[in-house]
Amino acid sequence: AGRGAAMLLWLWLWLCVCCCCCPARGLRIHEYLYFQVLSPGDIRYIFTATPAKDFGGVFNTRYDQIHLVPADPPEACGELNNGVFIQDQIALVERGGCSFLSKTRVIQEHGGLAVIIADNAYDNDSFYIEMIQDSSRRTADIPALFLLGRDGYMIRRSLEQHGLPWAVISIPVNVTSIPTYEMMQPPWTFW
């Protein structure tokens, strides 16, 4: 009962902070956005991501079942081999090779609705990188999120094991509306 009460208190405090601090237009810096993998079932968890600091758009729409498509090549620093599958979906990209903004622009140019950039340090299960604009003075309109390396690795690994080209996700997820006993968090990450 102690853990459940603590989790309810945490959710209540989180809701209070969000109601007082979050503008109607979207998330602010150092805040979290949550998404849930619906398929494949072995990674059916709620994941935490952070929005880019000073570039990209915000989620004005909730997508209940949208594809999370791993970019090919994973770094998404140029033309994509699977760009046709990125269109009207969300791309999963790996950090490295070019700036966060460049990756976001590549996904936007391929018609992606958003990009989730996973750290390329596969053992990173706790340190969020602050994604900032590069010095190019370019812009991007789609949301860009940072995902822990371990989470990105586990999603890609599951897709490879099942021979699937993408995962099905819901994004964003309002964690305050989910009962504590239903909060399916990745077992390798502590909240």
TrEMBL record:
InterPro entries: PA_dom_sf (IPR046450), PA_domain (IPR003137), PRADC1-like_PA (IPR037323). Residues 68-152 form the PA domain. It comes from Vireo altiloquus. The gene is Pradc1. Pfam families: PA. Transmembrane segments: none annotated. One of its GO terms (cellular component) is extracellular region. This is Protease-associated domain-containing protein 1. Keywords: Glycoprotein, Secreted, Signal. Coiled coil: none annotated. The lineage of its organism: Eukaryota, Metazoa, Chordata, Craniata, Vertebrata. It is found in: Secreted. CDD domains: PA_hPAP21_like. Plays a role in the modulation of physical activity and adiposity. Gene3D superfamilies: 3.50.30.30. Residues 1-26 form the signal peptide.
